[in-house]
């Protein structure tokens, strides 16, 4: 099997299979093991998945500072959703001082990587006026992009704004 032959993308994918219970019994500990093997080879997706497990306290103790470390390493490497998570940590003030401007910056990076969560989050920032000037029309624009990218929450928000 490719994952057992140190193929970093196969290792990350096997980790995802264990995390989601796809074709194997769901097992977060086994997922974490494969993510770590992938990340040790510099794989950004594996690094991002480790960060997400620290955010959610899966297998490891919840630790936002450790999560940020892994997300930053991931953001340097591959076009994945690490930028979204960094933005989220800044928006929520988890492991870092809350900074809406920094959150908006990272959500824009996520948008450039076509991350639906990043698109949704930029829309939220515009709707709330956090880190960017408040603008319902800009919020709708970003929600529309996120909805087209498959983000169901964005579709719901578009409906809600249309009803105002």
In terms of topology, how is this protein built?
Layout: H1 8-20, H2 28-40, H3 44-56, H4 64-77, H5 82-92, H6 100-112, H7 116-128, H8 136-148, H9 152-162
Structure description:
The protein has 9 helices and no strands. The mean pLDDT is 90. Helix 3 runs antiparallel to helix 4 and helix 4 (64-77) runs antiparallel to helix 5. The chain is mainly α and 164 residues long. The chain has helices at residues 8-20, 28-40, 44-56, 64-77, 82-92, 100-112, 116-128, 136-148, 152-162. The chain is globular. It folds into 2 domains: 1-80, Tetratricopeptide repeat domain (Serine Threonine Protein Phosphatase 5, Tetratricopeptide repeat), CATH 1.25.40.10; 81-164, Alpha Horseshoe (Serine Threonine Protein Phosphatase 5, Tetratricopeptide repeat), CATH 1.25.40.
Percent helix range: 55-70%
CATH architecture descriptor name of the largest domain? Alpha Horseshoe
User: Beta fraction of the residues?
Assistant: under 5%
Uncertain residue segments: none
| Structural class label | mainly alpha
CATH class of the largest domain: Mainly Alpha
* Extended strand count: 0
Number of domains: 2
Shape summary: globular
Fourth CATH level, the homologous superfamily of the largest domain = Tetratricopeptide repeat domain
In CATH, the topology of the largest domain is named: Serine Threonine Protein Phosphatase 5, Tetratricopeptide repeat
Query: What's the rounded overall pLDDT mean?
Result: 90
Largest sheet, described in full? none
CA-based gyration radius: 17 Å
> How many angstroms separate the termini?
54 Å
Write down the secondary-structure element order.
Answer: HHHHHHHHH
Number of helices: 9
């Amino acid at each position: 099997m490719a994952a057992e032959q140190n193929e970093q993308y196969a290792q990350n994918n096997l980790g995802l299979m264990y995390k989601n219970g796809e074709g194997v019994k769901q097992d977060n500990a086994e997922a974490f093991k494969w993510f770590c093997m992938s990340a040790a080879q510099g794989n950004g997706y594996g690094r991002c998945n480790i960060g997400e497990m620290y955010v959610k306290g899966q297998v490891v103790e919840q630790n936002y500072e450790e999560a940020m470390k892994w997300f930053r390493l991931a953001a340097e490497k591959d076009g994945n959703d690490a930028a979204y998570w960094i933005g989220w940590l800044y928006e929520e003030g988890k492991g870092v001082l809350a900074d809406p401007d920094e959150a908006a910056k990272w959500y824009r990076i996520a948008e450039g990587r076509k991350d639906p969560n990043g698109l949704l989050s930029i829309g939220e920032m515009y709707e709330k006026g956090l880190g960017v000037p408040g603008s319902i029309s800009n919020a709708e624009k970003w929600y529309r992009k996120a909805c087209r990218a498959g983000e169901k929450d964005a579709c719901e928000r578009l409906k809600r704004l249309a009803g105002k």
